[in-house]
Write a structure and sequence with these properties.
Shape: globular
Largest sheet: 7 strands, mixed
Number of helices: 13
Radius of gyration: 20 Å
CATH superfamily of the largest domain: Type I PLP-dependent aspartate aminotransferase-like (Major domain)
Strand order of the largest sheet: 2-10-9-6-5-3-4
Strand content: 15-25%
Number of domains: 2
CATH architecture of the largest domain: 3-Layer(aba) Sandwich
Helix content: 40-55%
Distance between the termini: 23 Å
Length: about 375
């Protein structure tokens, strides 16, 4: 009987590096440092170096990374923040946590990423009320950062990149996360760099922004027990930082596996009646997800599940249609179409070439039936 395949498999990510991870955990346990100690400091340096220098602040999770990044660049209550609606709810939750107002921007039909022309229209319509733009590098595909940064800058808006799914992605020769005023990362266990629990970080090259975020993550302290500004508790712990140091060492090699599997999907699925992922010129995706699109998504998803291939749907309901964030007057047809059609196939580093062949065979049989 064929093994079950899943669109994400965090246990496989642990097993691939089990000895290194166990040694890292033992090192932390023996150290006596468990919160904001040497492992966090080392991971912050190493993750900054991975981006070609800069400053990294480890925080508790990706949602709070985005919230603190926005606060760090000066976004506050009542400000508007432009972002997309085909993202996880966390992107919008972070905006609303600081009392800001999300403004939704339409996506490009081919890449499913923020449309630059739609952003320009939103910025013009808002007339200076948008204080920050949050492009989401969805599925490991980097957004059109050169144009987004240029457009935001002309309208006086900061740029905070949502890099939860784009560890190592490149656009126009630069890493995602290095284009904006700050970038927010999630290390949820299924990410390309995944912890064994929650974790997040903010990257910036602005020392003042970094200093503010360091204060915000721990009660607004610069001096211990003295709050200079209202902050919160959002600390990356030593155990997770030690695990992330192991995972970071393997990121490029594992992204290369993802690229290889994605290339095979693109080759084998070319004859299928599916909409395959489009890669924008100059983009180097890291294939956090490999997405196909079909109006018969649920039929295909059921067929594959019956054969032990379990696919994800990221994300089934656009944020502006969800009860907590409903915007009845907001119409984003490309966003709504994408959310109704997208299906995520297994593409993580534990997926073998033979696994890809099996998935493609099942899809081609379904497509021809």
């Amino acid at each position: 009987m064929s093994k079950s395949l899943f669109s994400a498999d965090p246990k496989a990510g642990y097993l691939a590096h089990a000895d290194e991870i166990r040694a890292a955990i033992d090192r932390v346990l023996a150290s006596g440092h468990y919160i904001l100690g040497p492992e966090v400091e080392a991971f912050e340096r190493e993750f900054a170096d991975y981006h070609g220098n800069g400053l990294v602040i480890g925080v508790a999770n990706g949602t709070e990374a985005l919230e603190l990044a926005l606060r760090g660049v000066g976004v506050g209550a009542g400000d508007a923040v432009a972002t997309v609606a085909n993202t996880v709810t966390a992107t919008v939750a972070a905006i609303e946590q600081i009392g800001a107002r999300p403004v939704f921007v339409e996506i490009e039909a081919d890449t499913m990423l923020m449309s630059v022309s739609a952003l320009e229209a939103v910025l013009a319509e808002e007339g200076g009320r948008v204080k920050a733009v949050v492009p989401v590098h969805l599925y490991g595909q980097p957004a059109a950062m050169p144009a987004i940064v240029e457009s935001a800058g002309r309208h006086g808006a900061k740029v905070v990149e949502d890099c939860a799914q784009s560890h190592g992605a490149v656009i126009a020769g630069r890493q995602a996360g290095t284009w904006g005023d700050a970038a927010a990362y999630s290390f949820y266990p299924t990410k390309n760099v995944g912890a064994l629990g929650d974790g997040g970080a903010v990257f910036t090259r602005d020392a003042a922004v970094a200093e503010k975020i360091r204060m915000l993550r721990q009660y607004g302290w610069r001096q211990r027990y003295v709050s200079e500004i209202p902050g919160r508790n959002s600390r990356l712990d030593e155990l997770q930082a030690a695990v992330l140091r192991v995972k970071l060492k393997h990121l490029d090699a594992e992204n290369a596996v993802r690229r290889s599997r994605a290339a095979r999907y693109l080759q084998l699925l070319a004859p299928a009646s599916l909409r395959l992922p489009a890669v924008a010129p100059g983009a180097g995706p890291v294939w956090h997800q490999f997405t196909v699109r079909t109006p018969q998504r649920e039929a295909l998803r059921t067929r594959l599940a019956e054969r032990g291939i379990h696919c994800g749907v990221l994300y089934p309901v656009p944020v502006h249609h969800q009860p907590a964030y409903a915007r009845p007057s907001c119409h984003l047809p490309e966003t709504e179409r994408a959310c109704a059609e997208v299906l995520c196939l297994p593409v993580h580093p534990a997926v073998t070439e033979a696994d890809v062949d099996r998935v493609c065979g099942e899809i081609l049989r379904w497509a021809s039936s």
